[in-house]
């Protein structure tokens, strides 16, 4: 009996230790990842535009409200736009592969049609915000589903042997004792 319990217990301990390590890795990954603020930036732009600001003025005000690389990048774009540089070339230097560049690309694509055609950017901003919220919600639900699967294996490895040892074996022993007595 001890020969069965020892491998099962060590497997449970190993799985629990691995689960704890993966949780720490997820926590460190979340802390290292910059917060996604593009939705907040788009909402601030929408508020400024609803109050009557032009696109360049709204971008300028939002860039002053943001204190990091994204604010500086938007500020540089606004300076280029004020100097008369066209929309796409004004955004080109800041739309690179990093997190700030991805945010700038979303901003550029969200506002481009309004800049070129003079239409209200509010419907497009609202659509992009809804799309980003939906994508984030889907990502969270997917990660929660993966987490439930990861939690099932250690739980099964711990509870199934206990159920067999406490519930099934005594029943079999009682049944065998009744058969042979």
From TrEMBL:
Question: Which keywords has UniProt assigned to this entry?
Answer: Membrane, Transmembrane, Transmembrane helix
Q: Where are the transmembrane segments?
A: 151-176
Taxonomically, which superkingdom? Bacteria
Recorded protein name is: Type II secretion system protein, pilus assembly
Q: Top-down, what is the taxonomic lineage of the species of origin?
A: Bacteria, Bacillati, Actinomycetota, Actinomycetes, Bifidobacteriales
């Amino acid at each position: 009996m001890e020969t069965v319990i020892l491998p099962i217990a060590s497997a449970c301990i190993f799985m629990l230790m691995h689960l704890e390590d993966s949780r720490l890795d997820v926590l460190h990954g979340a802390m290292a990842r910059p917060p996604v603020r593009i939705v907040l930036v788009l909402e601030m732009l929408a508020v400024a535009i609803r109050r009557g600001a032009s696109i360049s003025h709204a971008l300028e005000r939002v860039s002053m409200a943001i204190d990091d690389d994204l604010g500086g990048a938007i500020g540089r774009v606004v300076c280029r736009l004020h100097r008369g540089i066209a929309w796409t070339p004004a955004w080109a230097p800041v739309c690179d592969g990093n997190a700030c560049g991805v945010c700038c690309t979303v901003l550029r694509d969200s506002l481009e049609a309004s800049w070129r055609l003079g239409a209200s950017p509010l419907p497009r901003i609202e659509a992009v915000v809804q799309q980003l919220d939906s994508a984030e919600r889907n990502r969270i639900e997917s990660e929660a589903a993966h987490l439930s699967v990861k939690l099932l294996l250690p739980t099964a490895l711990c509870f199934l042997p206990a159920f067999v040892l406490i519930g099934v074996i005594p029943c079999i022993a009682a049944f065998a004792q009744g058969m042979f007595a």
